[in-house]
Amino acid sequence: MSPAAGRSGKDTDMGYSFRKAQEFIYRNARPLGMALWQHHFENKGAQGVLRALAFYQNADGGFGHALEADCWNPGSSPIQTWSAAEILRGMGYFNHKYPLVGSMLAYLSGGSDFDGHLWRDTVPGNNDHPHAPWWTYPTDADYNPTASLAGLLVRAAPKGSGAETLGLRLAGEAVGFFLRGEALQQHTLACFVQLYEYLAGSGAAEAFPMREFAEKLREAVSEGITRDTGKWATDYVYKPSFFIGGKNSPYYEDNRKLAEYECEFIKDTQLEDGSWSVNWAWGAYPEQWPVARNWWKADIILKNLLYLKGMEKL
After folding, report:
1. Measuring CA to CA, which residue among 304, 270, 265, 259 is closest to residue 11?
2. Within 13 Å of residue 296, how many CA atoms lie on the same side as its CB?
3. CA geometry: angle at 99 spanning 95 and 105, to 5°?
4. What does the pLDDT read at residue 1?
5. What span, in angstroms and rounded, lies between the C-alpha atoms of 300 and 277?
6. How far, in Å, CA of 215 to CA of 233, rounded?
7. What is the helix, strand, coil percentage profile of the chain, to 5?
8. Dihedral of the alpha carbons of 302, 275, 261, 240, in degrees to the nearest 10
9. pLDDT tens digit string along 101-150?
10. Assign residue 20 a region: left if phi > 0, alpha if psi is -120 to 50, beta otherwise?
11. Angle at the Cα of 209 (from 207 to 210), degrees rounded to 5?
12. Short-list 88, 79, 21, CA closest to 49
C-alpha cells in the first residue's frame, strides 16, 4: 500500500499531518524527542529539553548514550557531542553559563578525541556497542563534525577564553580548507553551513572572509541538493531541507522550486502511523536496529515539521 493509500481527501491536509505526527511522538519518542516536540510545537520553554539532554552527558562534558541514534556507545564522542550542539543550535541556545553548555565546551577544548586540528568522527568505544557501519572505528577524520564544532566554540565560549581561541584557530583552518575548493561529502558540507551560521551570529565574523565564504557555500549547496526527485522516496539523498531551514535561509531563493516541492513531498509521503520512512539501515544488530529506526522516525518527524514551519506551511 502506498503511503497515501486509505486517506480521504480531508485527511491529506496539513492538520492530518500534524495530528498524526503528534500521535507518533507521544507514543514512541524518547523523553528528549518529546521535550523537543513540546518546545517547538507546543510553546514549552527550553528547560525540558535541557533537562532531558543532560542525561546524555558524561562527566567529561561530552555526550554519548545513543544520543546519535546510529551509535549506541555510552562514552563521549565528538559526533554525539555534535548531536547535542545541533539540538542547542536549533533552539538558539548558546549560554555558556549553563552547566550543560559549559561542560560541553570543556570537553571540546580539553583535547579528548582531537589531533590538534580535527576531532575524530569515530572513537574506539563505538566498536564495543551496537552501531551503524559508518560509525565503526577507525575512519579517516575530516571536517565532519569539526567545522561545526569549531563554530560552536567561537559562538558559545567565553570571550578571551582558551576555548574561544581554539575555536577561532580551527574555524580559520576550516574556512581556508573550504575556500581552496576541496571535495566534500554532503554531511561535511552541512557542517560548513553550520559553521557559517555560527560565525555570522558571533562577534568574530569580521575575522573571516565571510562574503567569499557565503558565495561559495551558495554554489556548493545548490550543487549538493539531489535534483532527481524520483530518488527522494527510496534513496538516502540530500533534499533541500538538509541545508535549508526555511524561507529565511540564504540558500532558499537559489533553490526555491525544489524547496517548495519538498513541502508537498513531505505531506504526500507521510506514513499511516504519522512518521516517515527511514531510508537507510545498519545491516547488522538485528535486535537493536528496529529500536534505533523508531528513534530516527521521531527525529525525522521533528525535522520535517520544523522545515514546514520554516517554509510557512504550518
Report:
1. 270
2. 18
3. 70
4. 36
5. 9
6. 30
7. 55, 5, 40
8. 50
9. 999 999 999 999 999 999 999 999 999 999 999 999 999 999 999 999 99
10. alpha
11. 95
12. 88
DSSP 142: B
- Rounded to whole angstroms, the Cα distance separating 314 from 309 reads 5
Amino acid at 122: T
Q: Which residue has the cell 550542539?
A: 85
Whether 311 and 259 have beta carbons less than 8 Å apart is answered as yes
Cell numbers of 112, please? 579528548
Residue 194, C-beta contacts closer than 8 angstroms, at least 6 positions apart: 86, 89, 147, 148, 151
CB 241, CB 229: distance < 8 Å: no
Q: What is the pTM of this model?
A: 0.94
Supply angle C-alpha 45, 38, 152, rounded to 5. Answer: 60
Q: Are 90 and 154 in contact (CB under 8 A)?
A: no
Residue 46 and residue 93 in contact, taking contact as beta carbons nearer than 8 Å: yes
